[in-house]
Amino acid sequence: MSLRGSVYVFFGDLADRLEPRYYHRLDGYLRSARMGVTYRAYMARTYLYAVLVGFAVLVASAAFVAAFSDRLVREAWIGPPVGAVGVGYAVHAARVYYPRYVASVRAERLDATLPGVTSFMFALVRGGVPLADVLETVSSHPEVFGEAANELGVAARDIDRFGGDVVTALRRLAEETPSDDMSEFLKSFVSVVIRKEDVSGYLGEKAEEFHDDAEERQENVLERLEVLAEFYVVVFVAAPLFVITILVVVGFVGAATLVTLRAFIYVVMPISGVGFVILLDVLFEPPSKPEEKEEEDEHPVVVDVPDSETAVEGTEKNEEALDRYERRERLVEYLSRPVETLRKNPDVSLRLALGLGFVYLALKATVFFYLDGTVPTFEESPSLGFAFTETTEAVIESVDDTVVEAAMVSLFVYAVLYQTRAEYLRKVEERLPELLGRLSSINQAGVPFLQSLVSLREVDVGVLNEQVKRLGRDIKLNSTATDALERFEKRAGSPAVTRTTVLLNNTSEASGRLGRVLQIAERDAKLRDRLARQRRDQMSLYTVVIYVSFLVFIVIIAVLSTVFIPAVPTGEAASDVPQIQGDFDAEAYSTLFYHATVVQALLSGLIAGKMTSGKISTGAKHAFVMVSVAYLTFNFFLLLV
Q1: Assessment of whether the complete model's pTM goes beyond 0.90
Q2: Contact 276, 236 (CB under 8 A)
Q3: How far is the CA of 451 from the CAs of 17, 431, 445, 475, 515, in angstroms?
Q4: Nearest Cα to Cα of residue 204 among 530, 520, 503
């Protein structure tokens, strides 16, 4: 047995002997969290991490005490072992709690996806699709159904790979799922299936119930956001202003506060802002995060089993060549349709925006040195930490504007690209219910499903007009409904359209009369659009609050920079004022005010996007506006005062 295996066996046995009380509870959380690890293995790693971290703390703290033993009392040697035990226990406690936290987050996500999933299942069952195929269909589209697809995928795998039946798989899933609502739904659903009652009727009732719960849940979310908005104003606007003002006043009377102020601006403010974004992400994460999928090859490659090592080597070379060909083709596709690529791939847009920011930095540096510019250099032994030298300050002052300008370039490019896509998706979700309603009316009038799709060319559905016309042309060219809808889905590039096409493709195979199914899809699309519209309308108020808070912050900082700082005597004039002790570096404080405003602008913009839409990417436009205001204020407006 390897050393690693021996260590895991030792700590696993130790966990079994010392903490048997954790087994049932923690094992249940591990299953609910879908962490893919057994209780014994998880606890073995927990003990190992606790011991390693505790030992590292013991060595580091003992070295610190030894280095400063001449300045410390003898009792200081108690600190290293106590600290090691305390940190090790904290690691152990955090690891034991972590599965419970993950399970609770998954429960929130599952509850949020239940309305859409039950409506989708209702429509499929109503269209005649077997239950096993319903589970398989939902689980194969995590980009649409989010966490519910992953959860129902467990039952689908039990049926497909292990030969289980639907009742047993759902009953087991009901016991393991972290969501109480989903557990109750699955248990009742199993009872309905066993008694051979109306499955579609039950799903329809639960869909209505979950829709009502979704509206109530959103109201609760908005109430919590209102509290957090007030918390934001106090903690991220009033508190930083108070701390900065106090440190400046204390520095005025001679205390060394520049180091503390730098630590607060460069460390505390960013960390607290990121922590607040994480808090919002945990509490108000949207039900599903659509991810862009790579298009799969429609013609899978079949590889024969080789008979020799030479054949294996040839197969590997062929696979490598195929990978290179696919990467080259993907690059050609990106370059041949750049606008389409940027519209459908937010990650590509982000990389482009960051790249343009770095290009701006490189161009400005090139122009600077071409004009024979000079940059202050560090001393031979620059001081460490936040105790900057004068030359270090000069370097910062010479590059901070350039860094801010590059950040503005990246934020502007990404905001434009992201908002273009977001606006397109919003318009699609607004017009999709109308499209489904028209399709339902045509189909219920007796028109076959395939002909109903062709008839949509005469309907005005706004942003989807061109895609609908191409859908009709595909069908006219003898494409099947499934192929035409799949191409329509790829061209539209919207999760809402994906949800609809998956539903239509699966139900159309069972029946051509889809009027009732389309009504269900229309109702679900209207609910989603209404909830999104309601959240946007109410969150716009909090956006105004954040903007007003930032303006208050920048006004107060500007007053300190233009009124208070210039009024402080320096040099020989300071010797006549007994309250001033030491040298007051007014230029350093002004630079820090500028940096604090930029940091506040960036964080406020990102937080505004997270609060209003649940996505930090939406905050790029707000961050660009606020950073631009900060840049213009300190580089132009304050110079006129």
Answers
A1: no
A2: yes
A3: 69, 21, 12, 9, 14
A4: 520
Sign of the C-alpha dihedral, residues 105, 108, 111, 116? negative
- φ, ψ of residue 165 to 5 degrees: the values are -100, 165
Residue 326 tokens, joined: 């696919």
Helix, strand and coil in the chain, % to nearest 5: 80, 0, 20
What confidence score (pLDDT) does residue 341 get? 64
Query: Do 123 and 503 meet the contact criterion of CB atoms below 8 Å apart?
Result: yes
Q: How far apart are CA 315 and CA 321, in angstroms?
A: 10
Instruction: Give the integer Cα–Cα distance in Å for 597 and 592.
Output: 9
64/594 Cα distance (integer angstroms): 36
- Is 148 in contact with 106 (CB distance < 8 Å)? no
pLDDT in tens, 295-342: 433 333 333 334 444 444 445 555 566 566 656 766 666 666 666 666
Taking the C-alpha atoms of 61, 62, 63 and 64 in order, what is their torsion angle to the nearest 10 degrees? 50
| Rounded distance between C-alpha atoms, residue 350 and residue 339, angstroms | 14
Tokens 């066993």 correspond to what residue? 194
User: Which residue do the tokens 């060549």 mark?
Assistant: 321
Burial of 385 (0-12, 13-18, 19+ CB in 10 A): exposed
Query: Which amino acid is it at 610?
Result: K
Q: In degrees to the nearest 10, what's the CA dihedral of 629, 635, 636, 641? A: 110
Choose between 429 and 311: higher pLDDT: 429
Q: Are 115 and 524 in contact (CB under 8 A)?
A: yes
Kindly report the average pLDDT of the chain as a whole number: 76
Task: Give the per-residue pLDDT at 389.
Answer: 45
CA distances from 143 to 80, 182, 292, 493 (A): 49, 19, 8, 12
Closest CA to 182 of 157, 218, 146: 146
Tokens of 457: 């060319």
The answer, yes or no, to whether residue 165 has pLDDT greater than 80, is yes
Calculate Rg over the CA atoms of the chain. 31
DSSP 8-state secondary structure symbol assigned to residue 301 = P
Contact 179, 106 (CB under 8 A): yes
Nearest by Cα to 592 from 356, 393, 418, 442: 393
Nearest-angstrom CA–CA distance, 603 and 393: 24
Q: How many Cβ atoms sit within 10 Å of the Cβ of residue 267?
A: 11
pLDDT per position as a tens digit, 477-528: 766 777 888 888 887 778 778 878 877 777 776 555 577 777 777 877 887 7
117 closest CA partner among 177, 33, 161: 177
Dump pLDDT digits (tens) for 362-419. 887 777 666 655 544 444 444 333 334 444 454 455 577 888 888 898 899 888 888 8
Tell me how far apart the terminal alpha carbons of the chain are, to the nearest angstrom. 76
The pLDDT tens digits for 594-605 are 999 999 999 999
